[in-house]
Structures are given as C-alpha cells and as structure tokens.
Design brief:
Elements (H helix, E strand, L loop, with lengths): L7 E5 L4 E5 L1 H20 L52 H21 L3 H9 L4 H7 L4 H18 L5
Antiparallel strand pairs: 1-2
Helix pairs in contact: 4-5
C-alpha cells in the first residue's frame, strides 16, 4: 500500500505481481488474512515476521514461515517399530466395565427407593442447596428422624454395595 498515491495493492506471490484494488476490497482481504494469520500464529504454525505480513496469502503450507514440525500419529517411527499411536495408552474405561457399573448403579437406586421412597426427592432438594432442616420440613418429618433414616439407609446400602461407599 503506497501512502503517496492513496492506492491499495495486494501482492500475489505466485505471479510476483502487485494488483490495484479498491479500499473496500483491500480492507476485506486484509481483515481475512490477518484473522487467519493470527489463528495460525496462536497454534504455533506461523512464524511470519511483521515486516513480511504483506506476503501472507493464507497458503500456510507453501509459506517459508510455516512451522512444519507437526508429528502425525500414523507416521512410522524411526526404528520401524510401529507408529506413535501404537505407544499412546488408552485410558478410557472398557465398555464392559461401564455397562457393569451402570447395571449395579441401577440396582443401587432401585434398592434405595425400596428402603426410602422419598430418597430421589431428597437428592433433588439437596442439589438445590437446601439444608437438612428445610428438606425435613418439605417431606414432613422431624429433622432428627430424617437424619436417622438417612444414616440407616446409608449403613444398609454400604453393606449391600461396598464398592459404592
């Protein structure tokens, strides 16, 4: 962009040519490439110095300032012993374990409802942040009775489902 003639120009690296454009076209083009360059710089993929920003055409893979030190998990290792993905542990639980836990949790909830039918309502009220006294008032029993029932149910469930308590 030349300040003397008030003209706006865009450089094309492929043809090594400057193109005259209107101010609106230049602003739109510059806005897009600046946003793209900043995104690539924040990812560590662009190391274009400020005095070379005019060269940016949003084609990072062909750019001399592109950081191409990325590593693919599918590339073979230097020793030829598999790929990097082969050595990354998968910490996700096995689906069998998840399904077993789900089934056991469903049994626990069913047993809880048998022992204390208002348990689900109490849990919902606790999630709302209500105190034991307020909850006891809502389910129409004394606070001490409420606490006593909770302790008995917890004790009973901890015997039947020791892995959960």
């Amino acid at each position: 962009m030349s300040k003397k003639s008030n003209s706006f120009r865009i450089y094309d690296k492929n043809t090594r040519t400057w193109y005259e454009v209107s101010e609106d076209q230049y602003k739109e083009y510059d806005r897009k490439r600046t946003a793209y360059r900043k995104r690539m710089q924040s990812r560590g993929e662009c190391f274009c110095p400020r005095n070379k920003w005019w060269l940016c055409d949003c084609c990072c893979l062909d750019c001399e300032f592109h950081n191409n030190k990325g590593v693919s998990l599918d590339e073979p290792l230097p020793d030829g012993e598999g790929t990097l993905a082969d050595y990354i542990p998968d910490n996700a639980p096995l689906i069998e374990d998840v399904l077993a836990d789900k089934a056991e949790l469903e049994q626990l909830i069913k047993r809880l409802q048998e022992l204390m039918p208002e348990a689900i309502k109490i849990g919902e009220l606790r999630l709302e942040g209500l105190s034991d006294e307020t909850i006891a008032d809502i389910i129409r029993i004394k606070r001490t009775t409420f606490r006593s029932r909770l302790n008995k149910v917890k004790e009973k469930l901890s015997e039947e489902f020791p892995d959960w308590f």
